[in-house]
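Thread: quick sanity check before group meeting

JM: Hey all, I'm pulling together slides for Thursday and realized we never actually wrote out the predicted structure for the chain we discussed last week. Dropping the sequence here so it's in one place. If anyone has concerns about the input, flag it before I start.
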Amino acid sequence: MRYRPFGNVGQAVSVVTLSLGARDIAGGPEAGRELIYSALEAGINSYRLTTADPVLAEVLGEALRHVDRKLVQVSLMLGAGDGRRGSDRDFSAEGMTSAIDRALHASGLGWFDLAVLDQPEDHELPQSSLNALKALRATQRIRLLGISGESEVMDTYVSTGAFDALFTPYHVNSPWQIRSRLRDARERDMGIFVHGYFPDALDTVKKATEVHEEKKGFFGFGKSSGRAKNDPLAGVGTFAFLHQTNGWTAEAICLAYSLTDPAIASVLIEAPTVERLNELAMVPDRDLPPGLAAQIEMARVAGARAA
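JM (edit): ok, ran it. Output follows.
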């Protein structure tokens, strides 16, 4: 496992973060703890709770009980409910404070390194909520504040300077708006956590080959001139090579590519099984084959021109 600096206290986080949600405890608390134990053995010291579900928080807290708290980084998503039935979006001062207190009590972690607001719209975050979060920081129940989302309002939140971290989707074919937002966050010394590194649009050879093809227009005009499947140049200028690289899966390439940007502190992964967790945890120790990063950039530029 590799590590990168995060925050202004010299903390180092693993370049992959294990994201934990309801699915990870669906098989019972022991299954959830086993997954976290395997993550610790793989060198992962960064964890994200997707909700403030007290049961999920308790499972994580028990798994980390014998680990020096200062050596692990735990983030908590806020605003999207706590995972329980009937739980609604709530960015109110009272709602977020209660969610943090419940999760802290259940987990016994003492504090959350990051409290991350989950995709708030511009009308959902009143000043009273920001004041409450500042009060929580003052009492050391949370250390840093983060913002998560991909809509245009994220640009406004990044520009305020009120947040320490940005959680955003990012992959080999991310649009310029996302890349521009990453630059802005980097210039403001925000920690950057990315997810969605392997989008559905690239998860098969067919999708990866056709991702840049123009849609067919009226009377058939406007359709791109595709090549025959047996043409040796079929797939050139597309992301088909993601599925044709010896010794690499398409997902592993996409994960490794995300890590080529030194400004990204960590990439969020989801692992329904210990086996999948171990496969993904091995990727950071591998270097992309020579020339592959250039292929990715050429395919991305070709797509931008076709858009």
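AS: nice. The mean pLDDT is 85. Residues 141 and 197 are 31 Å apart (CA to CA).
JM: adding both to the slides.
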